[in-house]
Amino acid sequence: MSKGHTVDRIVASIARRRARETRLKWAGFMAVAVTLALLALLLGSIVALGWRAFQQTYLALDVYFDPQVIAPDGRLDEESLRQADYESLVRQALRELFPQVEGRTQQRMLYRLVSSGGADYLSHMVLADPRLIGTRQRVWLPASSDVDMFAKGQTGAQRAASLQPWIDHLLAQGRIEKRFNKTFFTAGDSREPELAGILGALSGSFYTIGLTLLLSFPLGVAAAVYLEEFAPKKNFWVDLIEVNINNLAAVPSIVFGLLGLAVFLNAFALPRSTPLVGALVLTLMTLPTIIITSRVSLQAVPPWIREAALGVGASKMQMVLHHVLPLALPGMLTGAIIGTARALGETAPLLMIGMVAFIVDIPRGLLDPATVLPVQIYLWADSAERGFVERAAAAILVLLVFMLLMNALAIFLRRHFERRW
Amino acid sequence: MPNPPSTPAELSLPATQAVLESAARDRLDQLPAAIGDYTVPEPRLTCRGVNVFYGEKQAIFNVNLDIGQREVIALIGPSGCGKSTFLRCLNRMNDTIEGCRVEGEIKLDGVDIYHDGLDPVILRARVGMVFQKPNPFPKSIYDNVAYGPRIHGLARNRTELDEIVEDSLRKAGLWEEVKDRLDQPGTGLSGGQQQRLCIARAIAVNPEVLLMDEPCSALDPIATATIEQLIDELRTQYSIVIVTHNMQQAARVSQRTAYFHLGRLIEIGPTAKIFTNPRHPLTEDYITGRFG
Ligand SMILES: Nc1ncnc2c1ncn2[C@@H]1O[C@H](COP(=O)(O)OP(=O)(O)OP(=O)(O)O)[C@@H](O)[C@H]1O
Ligand SMILES: [Mg+2]
Predict the structure, then answer these.
(1) Probe ligand 1: pick from B51, B60, B84, B260, max atoms within 8 Å of CB?
(2) The sheet that has A136-142: what strands, in order across it?
(3) Containing domain of residue A170, as a range?
(4) What is residue B3's predicted lDDT score, i.e. its pLDDT?
């Protein structure tokens, strides 16, 4: 075979190789592009729906804090002030604004302009400053969900359509305004969309996930250290445990919910719907993942570190605690945080242990009935009312922000500790 | 180099290879013992009938060797002949290898290190090790050296610890270079400095024996010279066993040399004699560079 002949062949094969490379590159590029497009579509639709929930329509009413209504018997102690009929103050103000509206049915329609939470709003004002009694104030009250939807251009609702003349009137007088929806971040769940907030679900998630991390991280790390550093190799029982852990990581999460129902609620009689039980279930669920990632980080510690430690006479325990664990910890933390971030988005197992109840109060501890963000999203998205669907999308945004924060923390921790390697 | 006339006829190269092969087949009690006197007066370490297995595979065959006080003994031999394996028997580093089994008797000052219930932790404090690849902990220079004394409780207070650290770094010839940056990571030093740091770390616990597995294989000639000089100084206090592929190095630093081949100790004797007058043809071929 002549020299020139060989070169020709190489040249020919190079063209083929190049072509294959180009095709592969394009295939990869397309895959990434499709993924990004789908992600953008998903996020776009959620943001488009959800951003509206961060705004709430408010109505300005001139409320007369009528002493006859608030303190008919002249008692101004807190208890009586609390129990006063503020609802009628709101109604009075509405009637004054639209004197031409007559008849019970029409008036009842009129009252629906203002959220049923408007009365609470007045009550808070009076309790904060009793000197308001007897005065007339312009007060901005949250509009009802119907008005809110209408003001945001969701004309679908028929009920809202019948309110249109009044709304136009209010608009003309500058009595309608869209403001930042503080309630959404400060309130618990509610029957009324305009009064519903995510703080309850958020703190429920906080307690549940916090306890999950506290329980699963030390347990997972301890298990991984034992299996990786101390357990006898090639032992039947150790192999069995290992296979089981790997399988557990793949078990559908609802199964863990059933287990939690059977063990924690039925056998141990722990209180239903509480972050405590939720965290126990989620711990069971994330533990295999944490064990596996922790073992991988332990394996990634170079063997010469161990030899160096043993070589100067460190015991096995000292070798692990002083050298191997500190080097493996960033990887373990990353694994744990990503594992718990997944738990943060879990719904199914929590449904099984009753964290799906309608809970208005904001949980203040591990034993208060609570729900979590994804379950709240599920509940709201399931609702017929447009206002709730909007809030579900907003809650998804909040959940996504939390996940991003957790992942960012994981990346930060990894970067931060990696430098010391 | 002329073939020494004292070589017994039955130990000619083909004959020996035949013996070695048959021995590999049927466990080599009939193998000729190593040429040369493997004993020393007042030994620190005595090894008798040492066999090492990795699973089913035997890596060391019936090695007898004494290591004296305050001497440097060099282990040489072709790659894969079991020098590292033998060295790692002496401080039980082989324990960490899955499936590795050591037979025979190895005594440190008359105490069997495998069978007399000697704690490996204590053994390794008395028999220190420097590895082929510099392996400082990813900690500060100070902490690298102080680690051993700390875990063994050798210093009663910070001043004493400081003294130990300085002393060890001085002995390792590193003090002048690092005294101003003891708090910086040991991994940030050059390869030669790292190796001297590892030596300082090993001698900080004041061992009786120092095992060195090709300590200079990753170093340039200048760093190598520093370490050789260091070995020469350390010899006044420690027994040193050094594995090396560098014949000149073995000749320069050691008093005795042991030649290994296929897991067997072939020849042992004073370094000068081994290098000028090897008795076994395998040894001669190796040190004259004909194979290995
Ligand atoms: N962990 C192990 N598992 C199985 N076999 C091993 C192991 N370590 C070494 N061996 C085998 O034992 C024999 C001796 O190896 P050893 O590392 O002691 O050789 P060496 O003389 O140090 O070689 P080198 O000069 O290349 O370092 C070799 O055949 C090797 O393949
Ligand atoms: Mg070796």
Answers:
(1) B84
(2) A136-142, A55-64, A176-180
(3) 52-181
(4) 45
Residue nearest (by alpha carbon) to ligand 1 atom 11: B59
Closest residue in B to A234 (Cα–Cα): B98
Name the residue in chain B with its Cα closest to that of A420.
B138
Give residue B49 CA to ligand 1 midpoint distance, Å: 19
* Structural domains in chain B (count): 1
Q: Is B92 helix (H, G, I), strand (E, B) or coil?
A: coil
A241 and A129 in one domain?
Answer: no
CB of B68 less than 8 A from some CB of A: no
> For the CA atoms of B139, B143, B145, B149, what is the dihedral angle to 10 degrees?
-130
Question: Bigger pLDDT: A75 or A328?
Answer: A328
Q: Does the beta-carbon distance from A312 to B124 stay under 8 Å?
A: yes
In this structure, are A267 and A405 located in the same domain? yes
Residues in Cβ contact with A71 at an 8 Å cutoff, skipping those fewer than 6 apart: A80, A81, A84, A133
Kindly report the CATH number assigned to the domain that includes residue A252: 1.10.3720.10
State the pLDDT at residue B99.
87
Same domain as A252, residue A150: no
Answer for the pair A201, A371: CB distance below 8 angstroms, yes or no: yes
How many domains does chain A divide into?
A: 2
- Which of B93, B96, B165, B208 is the best mutation test for A, with the most CBs of A within 10 A? B96
What's the CATH code of the domain at B128? 3.40.50.300
Taking the model in full, what pTM does it have? 0.81
Which amino acid is located at A174 in the chain?
G
Residue A223 lies in a domain: yes
- Residues B91, A314: C-beta atoms closer than 8 Å: no
- ipTM (interface pTM): 0.84
Cβ–Cβ under 8 Å, residues A168 and A161: no
CB contacts of A306 in chain B (<8 Å) are 96
Interface test mutation site (partner A, options B84, B143, B151, max chain A beta carbons within 10 A): B151
CA distance B71 to B271: 11
Tell me: the pLDDT tens digits for A66-125? 888 888 887 778 888 888 888 888 898 988 888 888 888 888 888 888 888 888 888 888
**Listed range (A227-231, B17-21, B94-98, B178-182) with the worst mean pLDDT:** B17-21
Please report whether residue B16 resides in a domain.
Answer: no
The helix or strand, by DSSP H or E, that contains position B75, with its residue range, turns out to be strand B72-76
- The more confidently predicted of residues A4 and B171 is B171
pLDDT at B282 > cutoff 50 = yes
